[in-house]
Records
---
Amino acid sequence: MAERRMARKACAEPDFLQFNDLGCETVGGKVIFATDEWFAPARNLLKREPPQFITSAFTEFGKWMDGWETRRKRTPGHDWCIIQLGVPGLIHGFDVDTSFFTGNHSPYISIQAGCLDQESPFTLEGDRTGMAASDSQMAAVAKLQPGYSDCCHNYFKVSFSRRVTHLRLNMHPDGGIARLRVYGVGLRDWSSVSTNQDVDLVALTNGGVCLGYSDAHFGHPRNMIGLGRAANMADGWETARRLDRPKKLQADQRGILQVPGWEWAVFRLGHPGLISSVEVDTNHFKGNFPDSCRIEACTLTPEEKAQCISSRWNSGKWRVLLPPQKLRPHHIHHYGKMELKLSHPVTHVRLIIAPDGGISRLRLWGRPIPFTATLASSRSTLIIFHLPANTLTPTSNDSPGHLSFE
Ligand SMILES: NC(=O)NC(NC(N)=O)C(=O)[O-]
């Protein structure tokens, strides 16, 4: 349902909502400390499903609320909690969702960030109010709108080019917030990964990101690169039914339908690499799996990527990685050396389904190829695979699902 709502409102929303939610409980996000959780626990902030309101629900502490809610403070100070991201990475924006907190929403917030592991460590800074200007400050103290349905999403675009593992969410002075969505791209420490080890190069945890798609009516394509198998259909990519499906159906010798239309989604790999096996999972899609799929791949320079974005990813550089394959319902399809056609490293892939339908997971197993080797094999001069944080270009209404960042 959340995805349906998102698809309809996509034109009015900021671009950064297309990135991955790095704090969500489904990718391992956790609240590790909160100053107060009297009315409702801070872990609710990271729930994947949209917040609910149940008029008749009360607990022994007060009104049941689907979010984090603290007591009305009668002493100096403010409430705050520490969030450990499920996927450390670069953050491009926040949605501080106050849904249903109408007389009890937190009036002001600030957010601080830290990197508390070995890679480029920096720590939370700032004074107890979170207002000190410091390296860790991502958003100055900001006013929140109450959680009425037309204004409950408080979006904050972020310019912060450092890897983040933890956040401190400060409420000034107290109150309630339903959800905190942390939009960004995972940044893995690739120095610990052997070039002889196969990894899922497109996984969200490895820094994969969806950069464009043709349709996300029921489910966003980024769901396909999430952890584990999909919980349900909403945890996969599902398009609307195409309206140009022919009345008379014709199939080729492999049983693949010959249809005029298709849907597509483009991903940038977390690291350039040589893909040696692919999994396409139609788990839960039983009456609405695509008839067939194919995968294309390429290595793009920043200039080529910009051209791809302006041509809706219809670049001449795409090469067939996986030729068209007939799909089955509710099934993991494995493709290996026999089916895969590319033997050089790539940076981007495009999954194409025909004519429409749902895929729950896409896994691209392969070896990360060192940067220089990728450059040599693609004969290009420069490849970006670490996203700069502060350069999102707004999308136009007639090209849904397109992100561009240089
Ligand atoms: N009706 C309320 O929501 N009251 C209080 N909050 C809860 N959850 O009971 C409050 O004012 O903070």
---
Amino acid sequence: MIVLHKKSEFNSQKMTEQQKIFMKMAIELSQKGMDLGKGGPFGCIIVRNGEVIGKGSNSVSSTNDPTAHAEVMAIRDACKNLNNFQLEDCDIYTSCEPCPMCLGAIYWARPARVFYANSKKDAAKAGFDDQFIYDELDLPYHQRKIPFKQILADEAKIVFENWLKKENKTLY
Ligand SMILES: Nc1ccnc(=O)[nH]1
């Protein structure tokens, strides 16, 4: 019998029956959202203790919201339901590997694990290529597709100093 180390087991194609069911739900959401004209073919569900606590499907084009990716929608739904800005002990099931925006949102939300079905490469083939955004991260600001220029940093800094001095703040 081969005994897999926990981490390598997570990295392998193996999955539990429960994980399979949850991913099927995320994939179903991706198809439904697309069929209903909500937006692109992406679905996401968030699970805690075996219970679905948040759902989302891509709603970019129907809500005129470029941030309305399935993962962001599901994180908002889950956080609202949990009345918390963190998703501790939660698992995210997304029908496609997250884009850089959702990756950031996921790290801020701090779930336990992320399961994805389609890969970034699959997404690129379907017309959703976000590799250029990953590439932008490594470029000097003046070489980015969208130029970034720092202005009035000394004024904005005062607010950060005030934050550091502030008592009774909610840290995150
Ligand atoms: N992974 C994703 C890529 C693009 N849009 C989404 O909603 N999700």
